[in-house]
Design goal:
globular, five-stranded mixed β-sheet, WH_DNA-bd_sf (chains A, B), Tscrpt_reg_IclR_N (chains A, B), 12 helices, ATPase_NBD (chains A, B), homodimer, 17% strand
Chain lengths: 391, 391
Amino acid sequence: MNVTELATTGADLSRLRELNSLSIVRALRDHPPSTVTELSQRTGLSRPAVDVIAQGLVTDGWASVLEPGASSAVGRPARRYQFRAGAGHVLGVDVGVHKILALLADLDGNIVQTVRRSVAADAGPAARLAELDKVVNACVAKAGKTPSDIWAVTVGVTGAVDAAGQTSFFTPLPGWKGVNLTTHLSARFTCPVIVENDCKLAALAERWKGAASDADDIVYLLAGMRNGAGLIIDGVLRRGYGGAAGEIGALKQVRWLNAPAHLQNCPGVPDTVSPDDAAAWVFTAARDGNRAARAAVNRYVKDLAVGAAALVLTLDPQVVIFGGGFSRSADLVLDPLRTELSRLCLRMPEVRASTLGADSVALGALKLSLNEIDDRLFGAGLSAPVAPRRQ
Amino acid sequence: MNVTELATTGADLSRLRELNSLSIVRALRDHPPSTVTELSQRTGLSRPAVDVIAQGLVTDGWASVLEPGASSAVGRPARRYQFRAGAGHVLGVDVGVHKILALLADLDGNIVQTVRRSVAADAGPAARLAELDKVVNACVAKAGKTPSDIWAVTVGVTGAVDAAGQTSFFTPLPGWKGVNLTTHLSARFTCPVIVENDCKLAALAERWKGAASDADDIVYLLAGMRNGAGLIIDGVLRRGYGGAAGEIGALKQVRWLNAPAHLQNCPGVPDTVSPDDAAAWVFTAARDGNRAARAAVNRYVKDLAVGAAALVLTLDPQVVIFGGGFSRSADLVLDPLRTELSRLCLRMPEVRASTLGADSVALGALKLSLNEIDDRLFGAGLSAPVAPRRQ
């Protein structure tokens, strides 16, 4: 449809009204309650047009009215309109090795419910899916909602996610390769269900409300007992042609496979410390001046830096985010990581610590759900607010 | 400006006319000469509107008319309109280590003039710039043009190009780091002058008219005595935040720095063969069954594959293009390269040989010049066809 045809044929007037409604919704979102005059200025539409459209949005359920208080001293104050972020809700879920975390948010991304349960690292797929169901059910129910109130669900998992929504390339979760979360969750939800790699979601979260909110070119490092990466280029999360972007860690020459072993095998870790907790012990000991622990952290950073340099040299990002479980020890890692990167790279990016910690994957999942809503509901036209159905 | 305002206010009628003209120009480009009826179908504009606009485009110089021959047997044949690709011209130049190549093309990318001169690998910046000037002058003059007829100039150079258009990070051209080609060429041309890395331009060329014209996610390998890469992601050439994307070769762990030495140091290369020609001798000998040469090619491919795998694991492209000087020996490289990559990568991309050979950088430079024209002239509105000035 050509823009000039919109202008000149009568048949497209309803489409024009839809686009106008969309302009007003966009002008309401991410703003405080606004008057007709403010909306007119923001959209370029006339005040009478805004008046009619805004009242239609209230009828449809996209906006609510704030009537002016009677007590105002200066003339007759104007009525204000507000986007009804509560018109719909989305879920973001992190199915991790050790925990399952679900966040429920409104259309502005305000989190209204959080449910977290730990899960055994060696739990099989049936047990893990049962825990997932419990967490999701509890999150929806505690918010006073039903599954049909949810407009989009995104689940983060460990491992690259293929076109079918499965981690068929590789996943450390036992027995998880054949699990199809889209199918599993579609038994409960009629809305779109998205499955995505945990590192990619964490990258999205850091750009949304974390350490990279000012950047469009971001390499996110998920650093822990396993290393991973999420890549944002020109403001867009990149999945790769088959969903396997960011998997540089699989190349043994860049040393990510080996890096955490320097911490686990550090001399002096007491027998009472479990292998899962060894790294935390080493970081604490290094902070306290233990020489063996410091040397282990340095060896760890040297190996981490090689894989990070491969990403930086390939993509030349503005910023590298050091995230994941080890980001709690960013105070020990960031400076030596910068030193190593400046030795290995042509152009040095900024290196920052994640500010979102353990919730970053679930937050990124929320954000992907919100993006899905934006694409489907606000991308082209605007109908009354109801949960979209899978296509 | 809101789309509905375009529809309803009189003040924007000239803007509407401009957008309509643009629709018709787009409908004319990349098509055979077209009738008013065909243009109406292609744009959704009415036949009377197309008629008026097309005649205006002829007056402005954007289109030419093909009057129907009188000999047609079936009724009165319609007049046809054609985009005037010759309304403007662009230059694409490759400043290489051993040669300088300039291509001059019309707005459809049809090459109308080619000038190539060899240059000594050890030539200093003044000598190389003098050769560049000769090549560019000859190319423009032989086409019967003057510099003011050129609408955009793009020059490809070896080394990552920074924000100032200089190869300040690194370049193998002696003394070239401080050279500012934009400044140098702006003394001759008033149109936009772009400087870009050779690998990035070659990648663009392969997608334009080479081995990757069907793909949006492309890793281009420039393989020769030096290795480089150009990256196209989601259909767009990616430069990185500071222009240094694709420079994975600088990381010694991925072995590109070492790879060509396996060819140069192959046992049995006669003393009469210069170091520059050693690789070609080894490829030929390997093709003839020489065991030492075959072993050297295998060692070369094993090292090349590590850097290629770093790019593939990071970006998960649809296709890897094996280009550069060594692509003449793709028959010896492609199969072992596929074997190595499938061993190292999670998801295997297609691996194809470049089809553009030694002209790929200059062709990519042409394409970038054409993109610049498209962005400036056809991106928003349409005025009469004259060379744009730098902003």
